[in-house]
Amino acid sequence: EDKVVQSPLSLVVHEGDTVTLNCSYEVTNFRSLLWYKQEKKAPTFLFMLTSSGIEKKSGRLSSILDKKELFSILNITATQTGDSAVYLCAVVYQLIWGAGTKLIIKP
Amino acid sequence: KAGVTQTPRYLIKTRGQQVTLSCSPISGHRSVSWYQQTPGQGLQFLFEYFSETQRNKGNFPGRFSGRQFSNSRSEMNVSTLELGDSALYLCASSPYSGGTEAFFGQGTRLTVV
Predict the structure, then answer these.
(1) What is the pLDDT of residues B16-71, one digit of tens each?
(2) Is there a contact between B107 and A41 if contact means CB atoms under 8 Å apart?
(3) Which residues of A touch B35 (CB under 8 A)?
(4) Please, where are the H alpha helices in A1-107?
(5) Fewer beta carbons within 10 angstroms: which end of chain B, N or C?
(6) Quick one: A25 exposed, middle or buried, by C-beta within 10 A (0-12, 13-18, 19+)?
(7) Is the pLDDT of residue B102 over 70?
(8) Is the CB of residue A72 less than 8 Å from the CB of residue A64?
């Protein structure tokens, strides 16, 4: 059975800390892995990862994929209160979603 | 470029009724996927339509159905509503079938009483 597992399920850190969110998967027909940030309603796209070992970076956020070990990580450095959200990863082919990591940044 | 538009934003229905939700994808996108999101179950895939054809279907009962029109707009219908159908229903549009980068609408919050 295809599955995507995110860890931790929730995380509380202080502003300025660095966090690492994990996403592991077991799926057939892997095409790519997607990271999304969900604050209120609509998840917003962060990264799409297709190849192993190539880091994607956007400001303080970065992500990398390991297709051999079947996982991805999302790093957020120098966290800010605006980073508080649920972070979702999803694996294509059929967009199989993890349960999300709820990240709370304390000022 | 306009984003994904879902209507209505909020809906309250009683058990046994039926409901139709609408999703207009980004212009030029031909794939529309529907998801149900509840606090306990997270995001669950309902179905995907591409060029008016259902391409993939999740594990939901037959009460959940959908369709896509020639302009790529999609509707989702839920018949004989149950309390457990209360959820946020999200649709996402993509240029192609099978996922890749998907853009989400704001969702329709359905409450069944």
Answers:
(1) 999 999 999 999 999 999 999 887 677 888 999 999 999 888 889 999 999 999 99
(2) yes
(3) 97
(4) none
(5) N
(6) buried
(7) yes
(8) yes
Q: Can you tell me the distance from the alpha carbon of A68 to that of A89, in angstroms, rounded to the nearest whole number?
A: 18
Interface test with A, best of B59, B100, B110 (most A CBs within 10 A): B100
Amino acid B53: pLDDT: 93
Tokens, residue A75: 């790093």
Q: In the numeric block, which tokens belong to residue B107?
A: 């969702």
Reported residue count of chain B is 113
Task: Report CB contact under 8 Å: B100, A92.
Answer: yes
Q: With beta carbons less than 8 A apart as the criterion, state whether B17 and B81 touch.
A: yes
* Percent of chain A at pLDDT exceeding 70: 97
Q: Per the omega criterion (within 30 degrees of 0), is the bond before A8 cis? A: yes
